[in-house]
């Protein structure tokens, strides 16, 4: 047995076996080629991010922001953020700045699970349409750049996608119809772009979605009724768009919705009582719309608002006395309406400033220093 272990044949087999492992675990030639093209289309002058991306070194070993599958040697993750706590940023004492565009060669990284190229401020151009061929992609985060063009029409082909973040770019066009087929999508952020058109009628098909942040765009039309069936939706931000029509009663009946930002739209009609009586809401912003009627007198001991903003509407009548029975109201703003009558006493009114009540028709008492 000892002779077998020390024989030349065994030594040759051992070397061959080790070599095979080394070959399998090194960066695949196709991925290396894709990276060379990807890198050549980008410029990062301040931090030296790409200094480790040498053509003569293994992309799976020591390349900044790159991770590979240890068995196949295929690249699985690109994680490049322009704002990070990594040592390379702390040493430079600054956030990152990168220019250039996303080369379609990135689509050759067919085992990619996550593609993060966010917060570099200067990356421009369009998202390569071939990005939708990356069948294993679970995270696509290109936020905080200057990307233009439209969301790829076939985005729905990314059936495993759980995070789509394209916020703070310069994108246009409508939300693609195929997006609502992303059955695994949990986080959708399109904030601060130029996305237009109506929210797809079947938006509620995104049953796994917990965050839908679509504020600061050019969206129009009403709130689709299909949203009422999104039982996992916790955060909905449609602020600073052109959403119109009334606020549906079903919004207040959503099971886990805790943040609702609908400010700076064209909403009309009354505020549904179900929204204000829902003890699950923590942040509710309906300011700067054209809402009318009275503030529903539906507050109670389970009411808990970190922030409640109803300012800059056409609300009339009195401030509901039941608001005094709320468990907690951290920030309240009902200024710039047509409210009248005395401001109730006690919590939360005793810690609010006059600006929370200013520019109403005939409010008096409390911090306004105006006798009733």
Automatic annotation (TrEMBL):
The lineage of its organism: Eukaryota, Viridiplantae, Streptophyta, Embryophyta, Tracheophyta. It holds the Pfam family LRRNT_2. It comes from the Eukaryota. Residues 29-69 form the Leucine-rich repeat-containing N-terminal plant-type domain. This is DNA damage-repair/toleration protein DRT100. One of its GO terms (cellular component) is membrane. Residues 1-26 form the signal peptide. PANTHER family: DNA DAMAGE-REPAIR/TOLERATION PROTEIN DRT100, DNA DAMAGE-REPAIR_TOLERATION PROTEIN DRT100. It is a single-pass type I membrane protein. Belongs to the RLP family. It comes from Raphanus sativus (Radish).
């Amino acid at each position: 047995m000892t002779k077998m272990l020390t024989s030349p044949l065994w030594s040759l087999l051992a070397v061959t076996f080790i070599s095979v492992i080394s070959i399998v675990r090194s960066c695949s030639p196709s991925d290396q080629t894709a990276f060379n093209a990807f890198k050549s289309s980008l410029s990062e002058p301040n931090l030296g991010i790409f200094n480790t991306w040498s053509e003569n070194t293994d992309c799976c070993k020591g390349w900044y922001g790159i991770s590979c599958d240890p068995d196949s040697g295929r690249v699985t993750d690109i994680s490049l953020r322009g704002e990070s706590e990594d040592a390379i940023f702390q040493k430079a004492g600054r956030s990152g700045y990168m220019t250039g565009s996303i080369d379609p060669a990135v689509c050759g990284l067919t085992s990619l699970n996550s593609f993060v190229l966010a917060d570099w401020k200067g990356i421009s151009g369009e998202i390569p349409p071939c990005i939708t061929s990356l069948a294993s992609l679970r995270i696509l985060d290109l936020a905080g750049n200057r990307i233009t063009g439209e969301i790829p029409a076939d985005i729905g082909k990314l059936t495993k996608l759980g995070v789509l973040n394209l916020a703070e770019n310069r994108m246009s066009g409508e939300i693609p119809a195929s997006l609502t087929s992303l059955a695994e999508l949990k986080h959708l952020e399109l904030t601060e772009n130029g996305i237009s058109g109506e929210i797809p009628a079947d938006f509620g098909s995104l049953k796994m979605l917990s965050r839908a942040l679509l504020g600061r765009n050019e969206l129009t039309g009403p709130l689709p009724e299909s949203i009422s069936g999104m039982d996992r939706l916790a955060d909905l931000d449609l602020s600073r768009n052109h959403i119109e029509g009334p606020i549906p009663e079903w919004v207040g009946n959503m099971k886990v919705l805790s943040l609702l930002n609908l400010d700076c739209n064209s909403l009309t009609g009354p505020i549904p009582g179900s929204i204000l009586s829902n003890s699950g809401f923590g942040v509710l912003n309906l300011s700067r719309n054209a809402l009318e009627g009275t503030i529903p007198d539906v507050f109670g001991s389970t009411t808990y608002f970190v922030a409640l903003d109803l300012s800059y509407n056409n609300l009339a009548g009195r401030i509901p006395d039941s608001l005094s029975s709320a468990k907690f109201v951290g920030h309240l703003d009902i200024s710039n309406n047509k409210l009248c009558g005395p401001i109730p006493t006690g919590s939360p009114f005793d810690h609010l400033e006059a600006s929370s009540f200013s520019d109403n028709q005939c409010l008096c008492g409390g911090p306004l220093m105006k006798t009733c």
